TrEMBL record:
Pfam families: LytTR, Response_reg. Coiled coil: none annotated. The modification 4-aspartylphosphate is found at residue 54. This is LytTR family DNA-binding domain-containing protein. InterPro entries: CheY-like_superfamily, LytR-like, LytTR_DNA-bd_dom, Sig_transdc_resp-reg_receiver. GO terms for molecular function: DNA binding; phosphorelay response regulator activity. Residues 149-247 form the HTH LytTR-type domain. Residues 3-114 form the Response regulatory domain. Keywords: DNA-binding, Phosphoprotein.
């Protein structure tokens, strides 16, 4: 896991970064702070691998932070001011994100960090705990009972068996495919994926979720339970869900 710290003097910006970090399986949020001095101390103590760092802050600017931190961590700059981009890259930052930061742009920066940092969980075959796929469409093979997800390298594909899928969660322009022992993240909208999956057993139950009916252990009102996960059912899809449950 890449240990991440978010530093910004504005609390709303920290909430967005914390949410984005929490959505990626290879990132671990170790803290958020509005105090760059506190952040620098954590870096110097070896608690952090990657810092998402605002430039315009009181007490210590992001560029001053970079010089003091040296090579003890990697840094992704986050700012509303594009004029600092050149100086940031001259200080060997991983990436430069302009606010407002979209999840898609954040994901690309995180992938750059994943390639640069030694030791974190890297994209791996399906048997590994976590696999992260590169931006690509998903090719489904209904007759064979599986689909292939493009991996992080040009000719690498990850096979995902339909029977293994617990549920699928939409993350903006990405989907997170939850399996019993891992999670596969790939660039694909939930709508596009829903059109390729066999229905049933797969059913969209919310704007952000597709579930496998075979994996549901209980439905209680507007909540589906799959293992320990609670998945909401929206009014749009509730009638279809209950119709399929009664038929089975």
């Amino acid at each position: 896991m890449i240990r991440c710290l978010a530093v910004d003097d504005e609390a709303p910006a920290l909430l967005i970064l914390a949410d984005y970090i929490g959505q990626l399986p290879f990132l671990e949020l170790v803290g958020t702070t509005t105090n760059p001095i506190e952040a620098l101390t954590m870096v110097q103590q070896g608690q952090v691998d990657l810092v998402f760092l605002d430039i315009q802050m009181p007490k210590l600017t992001g560029l001053q932070f970079l010089k003091l931190a040296g090579n003890k961590c990697k840094v992704v700059l986050t700012t509303a001011y594009p004029e600092y981009a050149l100086e940031g890259y001259e200080n060997d930052v991983v990436d430069y994100l302009l606010k407002p930061i979209s999840f898609e742009r954040f994901f690309k920066a995180a992938q750059k960090a994943l390639a640069l940092l030694p030791g974190p969980v890297a994209p791996a075959p399906v048997i590994a705990p976590v696999a992260v796929a590169a931006p690509v469409s998903i090719a489904a093979s209904p007759a064979a009972g599986h689909m292939f997800v493009k991996g992080e390298s040009k000719n690498k594909f990850l096979r995902v068996n339909y029977a293994d899928i617990l549920y699928i969660e939409g993350l903006s322009n990405y989907v997170s495919i939850h399996l019993p022992a891992q999670r596969v993240v790939t660039y694909q909208t939930l709508k596009e994926l829903a059109e390729t999956l066999p229905q049933p057993p797969f059913l969209r139950v919310h704007k952000s979720f597709i579930v496998s009916l075979d994996k549901i252990r209980m439905v209680d009102g507007n909540t589906i339970y799959i293992q320990d996960k609670e998945i909401p059912v929206s009014d749009t899809y509730r009638e279809q869900l209950y119709k399929l449950i009664r038929e089975q």
